[in-house]
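Exercise 7 asks you to align residues with C-alpha coordinates for two separate proteins.
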Amino acid sequence: MRAVVQRVSQANVEVAGARVAAISKGLLVLLGARKGDTEADLEWMAEKVLNLRIFDDAQGVMNLSVLDIEGDLLVVSQFTLLADSRKGRRPSYIDAASPDEAKALYEAFCDRLAASGRKVERGVFQAMMAVGLVNDGPVTILLDSEERLLRRNGQRSDSSQ
Protein backbone atom coordinates (compact mmCIF):
# COMPACT_ATOMS: atom_id res chain seq x y z
CA MET A 1 0.00 0.00 0.00
CA ARG A 2 1.08 3.51 -0.67
CA ALA A 3 -0.34 6.62 0.97
CA VAL A 4 0.02 10.37 0.86
CA VAL A 5 -0.96 11.74 4.26
CA GLN A 6 -1.71 15.45 4.55
CA ARG A 7 -2.33 17.34 7.76
CA VAL A 8 -5.38 19.49 7.06
CA SER A 9 -7.49 22.10 8.77
CA GLN A 10 -10.35 20.98 6.49
CA ALA A 11 -10.92 18.70 3.50
CA ASN A 12 -13.84 17.54 1.39
CA VAL A 13 -14.80 15.41 -1.59
CA GLU A 14 -17.37 16.22 -4.25
CA VAL A 15 -18.74 13.88 -6.90
CA ALA A 16 -20.71 15.39 -9.79
CA GLY A 17 -20.92 18.68 -7.91
CA ALA A 18 -22.37 17.15 -4.73
CA ARG A 19 -20.40 17.05 -1.48
CA VAL A 20 -20.10 13.43 -0.35
CA ALA A 21 -17.59 13.79 2.49
CA ALA A 22 -16.04 16.52 4.63
CA ILE A 23 -13.81 16.79 7.68
CA SER A 24 -12.39 19.52 9.85
CA LYS A 25 -8.95 19.29 11.50
CA GLY A 26 -7.27 15.98 10.86
CA LEU A 27 -5.77 13.94 8.04
CA LEU A 28 -6.52 13.56 4.36
CA VAL A 29 -5.22 10.16 3.26
CA LEU A 30 -4.83 9.35 -0.44
CA LEU A 31 -4.52 5.55 -0.55
CA GLY A 32 -3.29 3.27 -3.31
CA ALA A 33 -3.43 -0.53 -3.13
CA ARG A 34 -0.69 -2.59 -4.79
CA LYS A 35 -1.06 -6.06 -6.29
CA GLY A 36 -0.28 -8.55 -3.56
CA ASP A 37 -0.93 -6.23 -0.62
CA THR A 38 -1.89 -8.25 2.44
CA GLU A 39 -3.66 -7.82 5.76
CA ALA A 40 -0.20 -7.12 7.24
CA ASP A 41 0.29 -4.19 4.82
CA LEU A 42 -3.15 -2.87 5.71
CA GLU A 43 -2.55 -3.13 9.46
CA TRP A 44 0.88 -1.49 9.21
CA MET A 45 -0.51 1.39 7.16
CA ALA A 46 -3.50 1.96 9.45
CA GLU A 47 -1.34 1.95 12.59
CA LYS A 48 1.19 4.26 10.96
CA VAL A 49 -1.49 6.76 9.86
CA LEU A 50 -3.25 6.77 13.22
CA ASN A 51 -0.03 7.22 15.19
CA LEU A 52 2.01 9.60 13.02
CA ARG A 53 3.07 12.42 15.32
CA ILE A 54 2.59 15.34 12.93
CA PHE A 55 0.39 17.69 14.96
CA ASP A 56 1.86 20.40 17.17
CA ASP A 57 1.90 20.07 20.94
CA ALA A 58 1.67 23.07 23.31
CA GLN A 59 5.33 23.91 22.58
CA GLY A 60 4.78 23.95 18.81
CA VAL A 61 6.60 20.66 18.27
CA MET A 62 5.11 17.98 16.00
CA ASN A 63 4.57 15.50 18.79
CA LEU A 64 0.86 14.56 18.60
CA SER A 65 -1.07 12.09 16.47
CA VAL A 66 -4.56 12.38 14.97
CA LEU A 67 -5.68 10.23 17.89
CA ASP A 68 -4.12 12.64 20.41
CA ILE A 69 -5.86 15.68 18.91
CA GLU A 70 -9.13 13.79 18.35
CA GLY A 71 -8.97 14.71 14.67
CA ASP A 72 -10.96 13.46 11.71
CA LEU A 73 -9.80 11.37 8.76
CA LEU A 74 -10.83 11.52 5.11
CA VAL A 75 -9.65 8.59 2.97
CA VAL A 76 -9.67 8.75 -0.83
CA SER A 77 -8.75 5.77 -2.99
CA GLN A 78 -6.15 6.75 -5.59
CA PHE A 79 -4.69 4.04 -7.81
CA THR A 80 -2.44 6.59 -9.55
CA LEU A 81 -0.15 6.48 -6.49
CA LEU A 82 1.09 3.18 -7.92
CA ALA A 83 2.11 4.77 -11.23
CA ASP A 84 5.48 3.77 -12.66
CA SER A 85 6.77 6.64 -14.79
CA ARG A 86 10.38 5.54 -15.16
CA LYS A 87 9.99 4.72 -18.86
CA GLY A 88 8.36 6.83 -21.53
CA ARG A 89 5.80 9.53 -20.95
CA ARG A 90 2.70 7.53 -20.12
CA PRO A 91 2.69 6.09 -16.58
CA SER A 92 2.11 2.38 -16.18
CA TYR A 93 -0.32 1.17 -13.53
CA ILE A 94 0.63 -2.50 -13.77
CA ASP A 95 1.51 -2.62 -10.05
CA ALA A 96 -1.90 -1.32 -8.95
CA ALA A 97 -4.30 -3.85 -7.47
CA SER A 98 -7.33 -4.85 -9.52
CA PRO A 99 -10.44 -2.78 -8.78
CA ASP A 100 -12.06 -5.60 -6.76
CA GLU A 101 -8.92 -6.22 -4.70
CA ALA A 102 -8.29 -2.50 -4.24
CA LYS A 103 -11.85 -1.81 -3.11
CA ALA A 104 -11.70 -4.58 -0.50
CA LEU A 105 -8.38 -3.24 0.85
CA TYR A 106 -9.66 0.35 0.81
CA GLU A 107 -12.84 -0.56 2.71
CA ALA A 108 -10.91 -2.67 5.22
CA PHE A 109 -8.42 0.17 5.74
CA CYS A 110 -11.23 2.66 6.39
CA ASP A 111 -12.91 0.21 8.77
CA ARG A 112 -9.63 -0.26 10.64
CA LEU A 113 -9.26 3.50 11.06
CA ALA A 114 -12.88 3.80 12.22
CA ALA A 115 -12.27 1.10 14.84
CA SER A 116 -10.00 3.66 16.56
CA GLY A 117 -13.11 5.68 17.41
CA ARG A 118 -12.20 8.60 15.15
CA LYS A 119 -14.56 10.03 12.53
CA VAL A 120 -13.63 8.54 9.14
CA GLU A 121 -15.13 9.95 5.95
CA ARG A 122 -14.65 8.25 2.58
CA GLY A 123 -14.41 9.25 -1.02
CA VAL A 124 -16.40 7.28 -3.60
CA PHE A 125 -14.41 4.34 -4.94
CA GLN A 126 -13.75 4.59 -8.71
CA ALA A 127 -15.62 7.89 -9.02
CA MET A 128 -14.25 11.04 -10.59
CA MET A 129 -13.81 13.16 -7.47
CA ALA A 130 -12.95 16.77 -6.74
CA VAL A 131 -10.88 16.78 -3.56
CA GLY A 132 -10.56 20.07 -1.72
CA LEU A 133 -8.25 20.68 1.20
CA VAL A 134 -6.45 23.25 3.26
CA ASN A 135 -3.06 21.70 3.96
CA ASP A 136 -2.02 22.79 7.45
CA GLY A 137 1.68 23.59 7.56
CA PRO A 138 1.94 22.33 4.89
CA VAL A 139 2.67 18.86 6.21
CA THR A 140 2.64 16.01 3.70
CA ILE A 141 4.04 12.54 4.43
CA LEU A 142 4.60 9.66 2.00
CA LEU A 143 4.13 6.12 3.34
CA ASP A 144 4.74 2.82 1.58
CA SER A 145 4.24 -0.56 3.20
CA GLU A 146 6.80 -2.06 0.81
CA GLU A 147 9.47 0.26 2.24
CA ARG A 148 9.09 -1.26 5.70
CA LEU A 149 9.89 -4.70 4.28
CA LEU A 150 12.93 -3.45 2.37
CA ARG A 151 14.29 -1.68 5.45
CA ARG A 152 13.66 -4.73 7.62
CA ASN A 153 15.74 -6.78 5.17
CA GLY A 154 18.51 -4.17 5.09
CA GLN A 155 17.80 -3.15 1.49
CA ARG A 156 17.17 0.24 -0.01
CA SER A 157 14.54 0.96 -2.61
CA ASP A 158 16.31 3.86 -4.30
CA SER A 159 18.80 3.67 -7.15
CA SER A 160 21.85 4.10 -4.87
CA GLN A 161 22.35 0.34 -4.53
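Second protein for Exercise 7:
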Amino acid sequence: MGTAQPRFGYSYKFKKKGGRCYVTNLKVTVGVVLRLPQWNAKGFAKPELQRYFDCVLRTVTVHEKRHGQIAYETGQGIERAMMSDLDGG
Protein backbone atom coordinates (compact mmCIF):
# COMPACT_ATOMS: atom_id res chain seq x y z
CA MET A 1 0.00 0.00 0.00
CA GLY A 2 2.88 2.38 0.83
CA THR A 3 6.65 2.13 0.48
CA ALA A 4 9.78 3.77 1.80
CA GLN A 5 12.77 3.46 -0.51
CA PRO A 6 16.04 4.45 1.16
CA ARG A 7 19.14 5.47 -0.77
CA PHE A 8 22.56 5.54 0.88
CA GLY A 9 25.67 7.33 -0.31
CA TYR A 10 28.95 8.62 1.04
CA SER A 11 31.63 11.16 0.34
CA TYR A 12 35.12 11.76 1.71
CA LYS A 13 38.36 13.64 1.12
CA PHE A 14 41.98 12.64 1.49
CA LYS A 15 44.63 14.49 3.42
CA LYS A 16 48.34 13.81 3.18
CA LYS A 17 50.34 14.08 6.39
CA GLY A 18 53.81 12.78 7.12
CA GLY A 19 54.00 10.87 3.85
CA ARG A 20 50.71 9.05 4.54
CA CYS A 21 47.20 9.62 3.22
CA TYR A 22 44.23 9.87 5.57
CA VAL A 23 40.52 10.00 4.91
CA THR A 24 38.88 13.17 6.18
CA ASN A 25 35.40 14.64 6.03
CA LEU A 26 33.67 11.28 5.72
CA LYS A 27 29.93 11.79 5.39
CA VAL A 28 27.20 9.21 4.86
CA THR A 29 24.05 10.55 3.23
CA VAL A 30 20.58 9.05 3.41
CA GLY A 31 17.58 9.89 1.27
CA VAL A 32 14.18 8.26 1.47
CA VAL A 33 11.42 8.33 -1.12
CA LEU A 34 8.00 7.76 0.45
CA ARG A 35 5.21 6.55 -1.80
CA LEU A 36 1.77 6.78 -0.25
CA PRO A 37 -1.64 5.78 -1.61
CA GLN A 38 -3.89 8.35 -3.25
CA TRP A 39 -7.60 8.27 -3.92
CA ASN A 40 -8.32 10.67 -6.74
CA ALA A 41 -12.11 10.27 -6.72
CA LYS A 42 -12.43 10.39 -2.93
CA GLY A 43 -14.87 13.32 -3.08
CA PHE A 44 -17.45 11.10 -4.80
CA ALA A 45 -17.40 8.44 -2.07
CA LYS A 46 -19.62 8.20 0.99
CA PRO A 47 -18.31 10.21 3.98
CA GLU A 48 -17.72 7.07 6.08
CA LEU A 49 -15.51 5.62 3.33
CA GLN A 50 -13.60 8.91 3.11
CA ARG A 51 -12.99 8.85 6.87
CA TYR A 52 -11.87 5.21 6.69
CA PHE A 53 -9.42 6.00 3.89
CA ASP A 54 -8.06 8.99 5.84
CA CYS A 55 -7.50 6.75 8.86
CA VAL A 56 -5.71 4.12 6.77
CA LEU A 57 -3.60 6.82 5.09
CA ARG A 58 -2.53 8.26 8.48
CA THR A 59 -1.55 4.78 9.70
CA VAL A 60 0.41 3.96 6.54
CA THR A 61 2.14 7.37 6.63
CA VAL A 62 3.32 6.89 10.23
CA HIS A 63 4.50 3.37 9.40
CA GLU A 64 6.47 4.38 6.29
CA LYS A 65 7.99 7.43 8.01
CA ARG A 66 9.30 5.07 10.69
CA HIS A 67 11.07 3.11 7.95
CA GLY A 68 12.63 6.41 6.88
CA GLN A 69 13.78 7.09 10.45
CA ILE A 70 15.31 3.61 10.64
CA ALA A 71 17.20 4.29 7.39
CA TYR A 72 18.51 7.58 8.82
CA GLU A 73 19.64 5.86 12.03
CA THR A 74 21.28 3.11 9.97
CA GLY A 75 23.19 5.74 8.00
CA GLN A 76 24.48 7.25 11.23
CA GLY A 77 25.62 3.80 12.38
CA ILE A 78 27.37 3.15 9.08
CA GLU A 79 29.18 6.47 9.35
CA ARG A 80 30.32 5.70 12.92
CA ALA A 81 31.51 2.22 11.90
CA MET A 82 33.43 3.54 8.90
CA MET A 83 35.12 6.23 11.00
CA SER A 84 36.00 3.66 13.64
CA ASP A 85 37.60 1.42 11.03
CA LEU A 86 39.53 4.34 9.56
CA ASP A 87 40.72 5.39 13.01
CA GLY A 88 41.99 1.87 13.63
CA GLY A 89 39.32 1.21 16.24
